[in-house]
UniProtKB/TrEMBL annotation:
<feature type="transmembrane region" description="Helical">
    <location>
        <begin position="172"/>
        <end position="193"/>
    </location>
</feature>
<keyword id="KW-0812">Transmembrane</keyword>
<feature type="transmembrane region" description="Helical">
    <location>
        <begin position="107"/>
        <end position="124"/>
    </location>
</feature>
<dbReference type="GO" id="GO:0005886">
    <property type="term" value="C:plasma membrane"/>
</dbReference>
<feature type="transmembrane region" description="Helical">
    <location>
        <begin position="267"/>
        <end position="287"/>
    </location>
</feature>
<dbReference type="Pfam" id="PF03706">
    <property type="entry name" value="LPG_synthase_TM"/>
</dbReference>
<dbReference type="InterPro" id="IPR022791">
    <property type="entry name" value="L-PG_synthase/AglD"/>
</dbReference>
<keyword id="KW-1003">Cell membrane</keyword>
<keyword id="KW-1133">Transmembrane helix</keyword>
<feature type="transmembrane region" description="Helical">
    <location>
        <begin position="205"/>
        <end position="229"/>
    </location>
</feature>
<feature type="transmembrane region" description="Helical">
    <location>
        <begin position="20"/>
        <end position="40"/>
    </location>
</feature>
<feature type="transmembrane region" description="Helical">
    <location>
        <begin position="241"/>
        <end position="261"/>
    </location>
</feature>
<feature type="transmembrane region" description="Helical">
    <location>
        <begin position="130"/>
        <end position="151"/>
    </location>
</feature>
<keyword id="KW-0472">Membrane</keyword>
<comment type="similarity">
    <text>Belongs to the UPF0104 family.</text>
</comment>
<protein>
    <recommendedName>
        <fullName>Flippase-like domain-containing protein</fullName>
    </recommendedName>
</protein>
Amino acid sequence: MLESLATSAQQYFSVVSTASLRYLFLAFLTYYVSVVLYGIRWKLVLKGVGRDAPLRELVKAILASIFMNNVTPMSRSGGELLRMAWVSKKANIPTGVSAVSIIYERILETIPIFALFLVGMMYFSSGEPLPFIVLGIAGVILIWIKWDAFVRLSLRIFRTPVTEDEMRKITALRSMHSLNMVAVLLSSTVWLLDVVRLKLIALAFGLNLAWSFIAVISIANLLFGLVAFTPGGVGIIEGGLVGTLTYFGIPMALAVSITLLERFVSYVASSLVGLAVLLTSGGVEIWKALRSQ
């Protein structure tokens, strides 16, 4: 049994060691460009609720929150609290206001996720893409008409409780058309970069997967993260991603190698960077103060 495990581990390591460093570097780059875009989006939403904060502090808060998300159960349970406390201390923004901004960000993410889901569905369809385009347009129109219902549905999906006052502030943001357009564009760009990162990691092993297939994998990755109850989704995301890749015909050794590199970028390295930010930017004191409340 042990010999079999050792042989498998050696096989996977030999495959991982063949990965192109150029593509791996680009995968890292796309990840941290996404973090900066998250910071810009957060800054815009804060301005929408009448507050402002330095972009540098917002990016730091996001990086530190990634570490907290990765070490606390139920993805984002610790990170979002840290983000609220961070901007409260660094930019004097009330926690209620920062909570509304963070919740609204997550709601806006639902729109590009819906679009990504449609792209993924095209992978299973041999017909014309027009029906999916029409469905996408119809979905956006329905979201706009039934905005309050869409907000409440998004909050249930992301398991995010809100007060009635926060709900009123969130729904009031609908009238800020330019803010919503830019924020949705930034959210869409972030999810596109997520797909690009998976593509680059596959290319690192010489595997040129179709964009629609990568969209399917990205959606599956998201779903595994939502249902995961372990810190950072450890075990659940890896197992789900390997299972999805092998289900679609990717050899086991390649599936494991792609998963290991993806999680190294999005979990291991991001946790180390987030910890470094937490330790060097006063994050430990903020977290201690938050836990004492």
